[in-house]
TrEMBL record:
Keywords: Methyltransferase, Transferase. Residues 22-319 form the Histidine-specific methyltransferase SAM-dependent domain. One of its GO terms (molecular function) is methyltransferase activity. The keyword Lyase does not apply. The lineage of its organism: Bacteria, Pseudomonadati, Pseudomonadota, Gammaproteobacteria, Oceanospirillales. This is Histidine-specific methyltransferase SAM-dependent domain-containing protein. It comes from the Bacteria. Transmembrane segments: none annotated.
Length: 320
C-alpha cells in the first residue's frame, strides 16, 4: 500500500507470474485452446482499447457515455447521496468522471489489472478531483471481488460500465453478478452497462474496424504473453478473427494460427497446428428484459434501465 498523493492510495495485488504461467498453460492445452480476455490488458493493450473506443465502428463507448451524460443527475436523485463508488475493470477511468462531477462522492475505488494504465488514470483523477479519496487497486477483479479489508464497506455503488459483463459465460456471469451484489452490500446499488442485440452487420463491423485496431488489440494478447512469459508466439503468423455467433448471442474473437506454432510455456513446449484457433474473447449481447432477469436472479432489485433512441446500448440501475 502506497500513498501516491494526499488523496490517492495505491494497492498492488497484481497476480504473480507463476499463476499467470499456470493459467495460460492450462487454457492453451487441449482441444479448444483459449486465453482469458484479461490478457489483452497490459500497457499497450489498454492504449489500444482506448483507441478502439474512439473508432467510428465501435458504438458502445460513445453511446454509453451519452447515457451517463444525460442521466447522471437522474441516477443521483434515485440513489440519494452515494458516498462510495467501486469500479471493477476501471481502465482509463474516463466514464466515472461524469459520476464524480455529478455526485461528488467521498471515495472512489477503481480496480484494474493493467498497472500503468491504472497509475496514469488515477493520478490524473486525483489531481482533477481533490475532494474525492481514490483507492486504486491493481488486481484481477475476478479474483479480488472481495476488496482489501480496509475497503470493504457496504452501501457502495458498484459501477460496471462498458458491457464488460458480456465477457462472462452465462453460468460464470450469474456467479459474478452475485459477487457484485455482495460487494455493493446492504444499502448499495449497481450501475451496469449491457450491450444490446442488433443487426449482425453492425456488430461484426464494431469488432472488425477498418483501421485494424481490434486486430492489433487481439494480437496484443500474444505480445503480452511473449513479453511476460517469453512464450515465443510468432505473431506475424496469427490472424484476427471476429464474428457474431447468433446461436449464442455473442461476438467471438479468435486468433488463428497461419503456420504451426511452437510455444514455450516455462519448461514445457506446446505445438499449435496451422489452422488452430485460440479463442480469446466472448462478448455477449443482451436484451433489456433478459438482462433485468439476470439482475433479479442475482438478488438485485432493478430500479430503472436507460437506452439510447437507436436501442444500441442499455444502462441498468439496480438496488442490492
Ligand atoms: C471491454 C469487454 C466490453 O466486449 O466490446 C472491444 C472488449 N473487444 N473490442 C467488448 C473489446 C474487442 C469490450 N469489453
Amino acid at each position: 500500500q502506497q500513498q501516491l498523493r494526499p488523496n490517492l492510495t495505491f494497492y498492488d495485488l497484481y497476480p504473480p507470474t507463476k499463476d499467470m504461467l499456470a493459467e495460460v498453460s492450462q487454457s492453451l492445452s487441449g482441444a479448444n485452446p483459449s486465453l482469458h480476455p484479461k490478457y489483452f490488458y497490459d500497457e499497450t493493450g489498454s492504449a489500444l482499447f482506448d483507441r478502439i473506443t474512439r473508432s467510428p465502428e465501435y458504438y458502445p463507448t460513445r453511446t454509453e457515455t451519452g447515457l451517463l451524460t444525460d442521466y447522471a443527475e437522474e441516477i443521483h436523485a434515485r440513489l440519494g447521496q452515494p458516498q462510495i463508488i467501486a469500479e471493477p475493470g476501471a481502465g482509463s477511468c474516463e466514464k466515472v468522471r461524469l459520476l464524480l462531477d455529478a455526485w461528488q462522492p467521498r471515495h472512489y475505488m477503481p480496480v484494474e489489472i493493467s498497472r500503468e494504465c491504472l497509475l496514469d488514470a488515477s493520478r490524473q483523477l486525483a489531481g482533477d478531483f481533490p475532494n474525492v479519496h481514490i483507492s486504486a487497486v491493481c488486481a484481477d477483479y475476478c479474483q479480488t471481488i472481495a476488496m482489501p479489508d480496509a475497503l470493504k464497506q457496504s452501501g457502495q455503488v458498484v459501477f460496471f460500465p462498458g458491457s464488460t459483463i458480456g465477457n462472462f459465460e452465462p453460468s460464470a456471469r450469474a456467479d459474478f453478478l452475485k459477487g457484485l451484489h455482495n460487494l455493493a452490500g446492504a444499502g448499495g446499488a449497481l450501475l451496469i452497462g449491457a450491450d444490446l442485440q442488433k443487426a449482425n452487420t453492425q456488430l461484426n463491423a464494431a469488432y472488425n474496424d477498418a483501421e485494424g485496431l481490434t486486430a492489433a488489440f487481439n494480437l496484443n494478447a500474444l505480445h503480452h504473453l511473449n513479453r511476460k512469459l517469453d512464450c515465443q508466439f510468432d505473431t506475424a503468423n496469427m490472424r484476427h478473427v471476429a464474428f457474431y455467433n447468433s446461436d449464442h448471442q455473442r461476438i467471438e474473437m479468435h486468433l488463428e494460427c497461419l503456420c504451426d506454432q511452437h510455444i514455450q510455456l516455462g519448461e514445457r513446449s506446446l505445438i499449435l497446428n496451422s489452422g488452430t484457433r485460440i479463442h480469446t474473447e466472448n462478448s455477449y449481447k443482451f436484451t433489456e428484459q433478459s438482462f433485468s432477469a439476470e439482475l433479479i436472479a442475482a438478488g438485485f432489485k432493478p430500479l430503472n434501465c436507460w437506452t439510447d433512441p437507436q436501442n444500441l446500448f442499455s444502462l441498468h440501475l439496480a438496488q442490492a
